[in-house]
Each structure stands twice: as structure tokens, then as C-alpha cells.
Amino acid sequence: MLVAAAVCPCPPLLVPEVAAGAAPELDSARAACTDALGVLAASRPDRLVVVGPADSAGPEVYPPGARGSFRGFGVDVAVSLGAVDGEEEERGADLPYGLAVGAWLLTRTGWADAPVDALGVGEGLPAERCAAVGREVAARAGRTALLVLGDASACRTLKAPGYLDERAAPFDAAVGRALGAADLAALAALDVALSRELKVSGRAPWQVLAGAAEDTDLTGALLYEDAPYGVGYLVATWS
User: Fold this and answer.
1) Residues 135, 2: contact at Cβ < 8 Å?
2) Which of 73, 156, 184, 204 could form a disulfide with 121 if both were Cys (CB 3.0 to 4.6 A apart)?
3) Is the pLDDT of residue 197 over 60?
4) How many CB atoms are closer than 10 A to CB 27?
5) Which domains does the chain have, with CATH numbers?
6) CA-to-CA distance for 179 and 229, rounded, in angstroms?
7) d(CA 31, CA 182)
8) Is the CB of residue 18 less than 8 Å from the CB of residue 229?
């Protein structure tokens, strides 16, 4: 049963070592993520599942102890999903960057409230399959919490990674409303093709969340909404 969820952005720039001199620019986003993880801890879950973007459609499962790093961004920062023993380190696959950011957020806040595993879902995963994956996660025994990672559009300004697209701001605003209201139907209806055109990495993870939250009575709260660097970042909690 799903008892709580936190939605966070996952740009590697959240990691101060990656952002370097620009690190203070995302301090408010980091603070909102910390608050969101506090809501997860307060729900006293039996397990935490981190859901985030991946290169392949997936879903791809990453067990406790799976490792990732930010060496590809020029810094020697390594992370792992929860406590690592020798066996877990051997079998753990490399985390894609979005899930690595999630592992970094958990380490930063000292997460020790429940075992952690992860799912990677890519932009090619259809909406219906995302919902089914979410239902499968929520159907497991015990109290489940989700940390859902993904960015909104990357087309908010001329200097954005995807250049300026006038559809981006309305899209992000609609997603913000849906996350703040825990509106499952609105998230399930997000257009796959439009999300791809706007370079939205969060579409599939958000639709997994919507599937997991079916048959629950969770209340949403939007904690942060901004578009630094022309990319939409959203932080929300469902509890």
C-alpha cells in the first residue's frame, strides 16, 4: 500500500560539487527536497522505492546497494542506494543519473527509515504501462513510500537545453497543479509525444506515481516550482 510520496527534480546540478560556483542558486530547491523527504520519513514506511528516469524504457530494477557516481560530470562523488555490503555491491547495476541524484538526496538527509530499492523508467514507456508498474509497486506487502524523480520541460527560455518552446510554461504549470492536488487523472493524461518534444524527464515517473496512488486517499502539496536554467523543477509531497 502506498502511504506517501515525494516528488523531486533530478538535475545533477543539485549536487553542490557538480554545480561548483553556481551551487547556491539551487539552495531553495535542495531545501524543498529535504522537506519532502521528511514527509516520507514521517509516514513510517516499511520500504522506499525510488522511481526515476532511465535511458531505456524499462522498467529496470536496481536493488539495495546499487551504486552510481557523478564522475561523468567531472567530480569524484559516488552514491549508493542504502547500506552496501559486499554482495550488494557486486550485483548492483550502475544507477542512471536521475536515480543517482535520488541516492544523493537520501544520503544527504541521512535516510535510515526503511530499505531502499529503485526503478528506472524511460521516456519510451507508454502511459498505460507506467500505471501498471505503479500498481505493481503499491500492491506489494507492507507500507510503501515513493521518491519520484524527474524534471519538467527543458524549453522554458532561449538558453534552455531545448531552446524556447511556448508550450513549455503551460505544460509545467499543469503538472505543478496536478502534483499539488494529487490529481491522478491529470498525470495519467500527460501526452507522451509532447513530453518528449519538451524534453520532460519526469513524465514516466509521475505516471508510475499516479498508478501507485490508485485506491488511496492521499493529499498533495506543492513545495517548490521554478525554472532555473530554463528547466522546470517541481517539488511536491503526497501524504
Assistant:
1) no
2) 204
3) yes
4) 10
5) 2-238 (3.40.830.10)
6) 22
7) 21
8) no
Q: Which amino acid is at 208?
A: V
Q: Determine the Cα angle at 225 with ends 221 and 229, to 5°.
A: 160
Q: What does the mean pLDDT of the chain come to?
A: 93
Helix-helix angle 203-212:127-139, to 10 degrees: 50
Give the chain's end-to-end CA distance (angstroms, integer). 12
Q: Which stretch of 70-79, 187-196, 224-233 has the lowest confidence by average pLDDT? A: 70-79
Peptide bond just before 59 cis, omega within 30 deg: yes
Distance (Å) of CA 163 to CA 97, 150, 151, 168, 191 = 22, 19, 15, 10, 20
Mutual orientation of helices 203-212 and 168-181 as an angle, nearest 10°?
20
Beta bridge partners of 6: 147, 237
Vertex 232: Cα angle to 227 and 236 (nearest 5): 110
Residue 208 predicted with pLDDT over 90? yes
Q: Do 150 and 52 meet the contact criterion of CB atoms below 8 Å apart?
A: yes
Using CA atoms, how far residue 98 sits from 11, 95, 119, in Å, is 7, 8, 11
pLDDT of residue 87 exceeding 70: no
Neighbours of 28 (CB within 10 A): 15
Q: Considering the entire predicted model, what is its pTM?
A: 0.94
User: What phi, psi does 37 have (nearest 5°)?
Assistant: -65, -30
Q: Cell numbers of 237, please?
A: 509531497
* Cβ atoms of residues 226 and 19 within 8 Å: no
